[in-house]
Amino acid sequence: MAEFESKLPVSGGKNHVFEACHHVVKALRASDNNLDANLRKLLSDLESHLSTFGMVDTKVEEDTGFSDMDERFKEAVKRILGWETNQSTILEAGPSEANHFFQALYEVQTFLMGFKAFPIKTNLKEKDVYNQATVALDIAMVRLEKELCDVLYQHKQHIKPEYLAVSSRGKDIVYDESFVSLDDEVVVEASSLEDDEQTLGFQAADMVDPLIIPHIKAIANAMFACDYGRAFREAFISVRREALDEYMITLELERLSCVEVLQMDWEDLNCAMRKWTKVLKIITQVYLPSEKRLCEQILGDFDPISTACFIEISKDLILSLLNFGEAVSLRSCQPEMLESFLSMYEVSAEILLDVDNLFSEETGSFLRMAFHELSKKLANRTTTTFLKFKNAIAANESSRAFPGGGIHHLTRYVMNYLKLLPKYTDALNSLLENLEVDDSIPEKTGQDILPSTFSPMARHLRSIVTTLESSLERKAQLYADESLKFIFLMNNFHYMVQKVKGSELRHFFGDEWIRKHIARYQHNVTDYERSTWSSILSLLKDNNDSVSTLRERCRLFCLAFDDVYKNQTRWSVPDPELRDDLHISTSVKVVQSYRGFIGRNAARIGDRHIRYTCEDIENLLLDLFECLPSPRSLRSSRRR
């Protein structure tokens, strides 16, 4: 595409001026026979002087020289005027036609520069020639400005589809005082989408078709050489800014005022914050570097104009992105904002080097400093929100026991929220490094102790869970039934262990923490069995009792068993594996004791006094902890 390069020399070039002056001198000498003798002598001396620079062939006849120049000038003007009403682009006409146009422009500009270097226009013919050249130049510049806009519009490149994945998640993380909104499904969905986004990757893109860059550069060279640089800049900036606005519409990120951001409800704000995070990364790591490269490719010879154009193109968008971040940082630090704040802070810190490279010159320093300031504000807000999240857990109190002794909403919320945090490890370690925290750090012994368990983030996560444990202990005291209290603690501690074991949280809590908490909920199982069944199973111990005593023991056992069944079928053990283990453990103790008692005393007690068979007891025990709306009728299990 070298043929598209402008042939216009830079204004002020020495050889160019000499050549232009020489042509004008010839034109003046041949244009009017009424020149006085002094002026004729002046022109003759000037022509002789110019010839000493090797720019004039003194052997060429003056009239022949002017005739050639006049024909070239007329042909050049004619070619330029021919494009005045042509609706197609010069680019479409092909390389040859483009070369002819730029050559014609070169001829006219050379002529005009000669007039400017030797401004003698004393008669109508001289003025007419000068005016023709001026009009032709103006028409050429208007044509090139239109050409610039048309070519940029027609050959703009669209960012590859994978960069446009700024979709909203199906479910948002929402906080309220009951901590009831974050369950396992939301976390799984959010995590899978984050994984998809992390594998997206970023790379530079061409903003316009690379094949037309030389043509646009030729237009730039021509317009700047003809002192129409301002018109080029304004047209170029306008088109590229419009392309950037169009791209932002594709990304579906609405430009919001500070007031609008402060008044948004949480669901809409959360969506906007996630979009902002993704868009900021795409814009600073893909779009703007590519836009800056385009400016350098076209205007690199006119620096710092290239930098100024790039800043003008990107400034409005950058300021709108910064304004959104500033507005969000003014919102109150509610716990539900933690992950979104973390995401915004992490990206704002990550792109600082990119921003420094994009706006390294002094003219862009105000944007560079604004990004650094925003990152600091987001850091402060994120830290404050993290601490408020922990305080909200500590402040969460209940006036009534949690129904069924299942997994409390607070436990689900906290553990699922913590599962979302490991992807922000670097950010959290940086933010929490200098914050004091109460945490029982495990001793650095054994093969299973990981360095990550001693990081600032690990210490704070364990501290949050310790706060959760204290809250659960207080909630357990609300149960009037001691056995249900142990079921509640068992469920919640088991849930906490499973969340840590089955996620990246394991690297922060450590195996020692896991072992201790497994032992803790197993101890709750033991406490439950003791508080529920110890007194009941003591009825099945006989010491050569009388028949009436044995029958009374059997009757009391069945009554106590009925009471346990009616109550504990309404209790909940949501984890199937834990529930099965509890069924097995209970059955081993209860069925074995009952079988032994009946085996030894069935004949003395009599069938009609034995209400349940061993199989009945075993089957009924399987209904425990199923959270049934109402217990199965016990009559169907009675022996007839």
UniProtKB/TrEMBL annotation:
GO cellular component: cytosol; exocyst; extracellular exosome; plasma membrane
A single BP term in Gene Ontology: exocytosis
Pfam families: Exo70_C, Exo70_N
Coiled coil region boundaries: none
Record Gene3D superfamilies: Exocyst complex component Exo70 (1.20.1280.170)
InterPro entries with a match to the protein in the record: Cullin_repeat-like_dom_sf (IPR016159), Exo70 (IPR004140), Exo70_C (IPR046364)
GO MF term set: phosphatidylinositol-4,5-bisphosphate binding; SCF ubiquitin ligase complex binding
Keyword Protein transport applies: yes
UniProtKB keywords: Exocytosis, Protein transport, Transport
Domain Exocyst complex subunit Exo70 C-terminal: 275-623
Source superkingdom: Eukaryota
Protein purpose: Component of the exocyst complex.
Entry's family note: Belongs to the EXO70 family.
PANTHER family per the UniProt record, alphabetical: EXOCYST COMPLEX COMPONENT EXO70E2, EXOCYST COMPLEX PROTEIN EXO70
Protein name, entry field: Exocyst subunit Exo70 family protein
Organism of derivation: Eutrema salsugineum
